[in-house]
């Protein structure tokens, strides 16, 4: 298996860490793609809902949902970075023992 720096490794701990990161990356990717697709499909089949005012404001519901999705994307990116940093800290501590 290749590490991010191009070196191959057969160390089971590194392979487990890479697999853990990969699962996390794919989980978040599938989640956000699913949310975007749900938003798009809802807009196609329920355009009147998207055009309706959000909580009585002049802002359409579809735009409010888009802002929420962008916020979710930023939040998931921040969570991913924190988790990967923790994984890397755990890996460094494990190697220094």
Structure, explained:
- It is a single chain.
- By secondary structure, the chain is an all-alpha fold.
- The protein has one domain (28-96).
- Helix content is 77%, strand content 0%.
- It has helices at residues 12-45, 47-51, 61-96.
- The longest helix has 36 residues, at 61-96.
- The protein is elongated.
Name its key features.
97 residues, mainly alpha, 0% strand, elongated
Helix percentage range: over 70%
Give the termini distance in whole angstroms. Answer: 23 Å
- Along the chain, the helix and strand elements come as HHH
Shape designation: elongated
Low-confidence stretches: none
Name the average pLDDT. 84
Secondary-structure blueprint:
Elements lengths: L11 H34 L1 H5 L9 H36 L1
Helix pairs in contact: 1-3
Give a short overview.
The protein has 97 residues and is mainly alpha-helical. 77% of the residues lie in helices and 0% in strands. The chain has helices spanning 12-45, 47-51, 61-96.
């Amino acid at each position: 298996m290749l590490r991010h720096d191009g070196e191959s490794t057969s160390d089971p701990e590194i392979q487990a860490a890479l697999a853990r990161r990969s699962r996390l990356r794919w989980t978040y990717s599938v989640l956000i793609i699913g949310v975007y697709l749900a938003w798009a499909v809802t807009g196609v089949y329920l355009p009147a809902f998207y055009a309706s005012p959000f909580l009585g404001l002049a802002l359409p519901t579809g735009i409010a949902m888009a802002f929420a999705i962008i916020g979710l994307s930023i939040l998931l990116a921040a969570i991913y970075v924190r988790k990967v940093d923790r994984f890397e800290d755990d890996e460094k501590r494990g190697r220094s023992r």
